[in-house]
Amino acid sequence: MQANIITRLLFMERCRLCHSPIVNESCSAPKAVCPTCWQEIMSLCPSLELCPLSGGRSLFIASGAGYHGMVKKLVLKLKYDGDCLLAEDLSLLLARAWTLIAAKDENGGPGLVPVPLHWSRLFRRGFNQSELLSKALSRSQGLACLPSALRRVKLTTAQLDLGRAERFANLSGAFQGNRKVAGGACLVLVDDIYTSGATLSAAGETLLAAGARQVFALTVARAHIS
Ligand SMILES: [Zn+2]
Question: Residues 109-157: pLDDT tens digits?
Fold first, then answer.
């Protein structure tokens, strides 16, 4: 009996924020963040809104949280450590924002399109955090995940080092849409963070040019935009 308790403690997930053991048994609760930290995250989440994507012609975006504090820590941990359990938890923030888009889609059942990485970056990192998030959301909401709708064909400079106008220019010709998958479809681009909107609008415009009927964007978090 005591050995069982020790084994449980050893293999118990620990909160990625406060390192306390996670004892939440509910299957819909976060798995990598303890209930106390999660409650704090949710209490700081802004009210949801579907807004025009900065720089996008006709694209609307919804984000589940602000990009700061604990959410920022978790997003960075997912991006640099590939912690799959965190993708599951952060997809709960995507699901929160998803409700706004679900209400706008007249035909139901849109497909999720993760913002792709260039193959060389994917090779180096070993995973695409946007794809992990899309797959987690697709499982929880019963939506199709369509990574083949979009390819990243240009290796671009890291956006962080660029000014706003340069960010948009940097993304020119970066994506290629797949007409067979995107044609006539309602698609939802999924990414971790919304900063300048340059990546999402370039990806969205590419999907529209490939024949998509409608494109929305959904991110875990939104940075303050200057
Ligand atoms: Zn915690």
Answer: 689 999 999 999 999 889 999 999 999 999 999 999 999 999 999 888 7
Question: What is the 12 CA–ligand 1 centroid distance (Å)?
Answer: 13
pLDDT digits (tens, 9 = 90+) for 161-214: 777 777 777 788 899 999 999 999 999 999 999 988 889 999 999 999 999 999
Question: What DSSP line would sit under 107-149, residue for residue?
Answer: S--PEEEEPPPPHHHHHHHSS-HHHHHHHHHHHHHT-EE-GGG
Strand-pairing partners, residue 187, are 111, 215
DSSP for residue 14: B
Q: How far is the CA of 113 from the centre of ligand 1 (A)?
A: 31
Is 191 strand, coil or helix? Answer: strand
**Cβ contacts of residue 162 below 8 Å, gap of 6+?**
170
Distance 101 CA to ligand 1 centre (A): 30
Q: How far apart are CA 128 and CA 190, in angstroms?
A: 11
Domains and CATH numbers, the chain: 1-44 (no CATH), 45-222 (3.40.50)
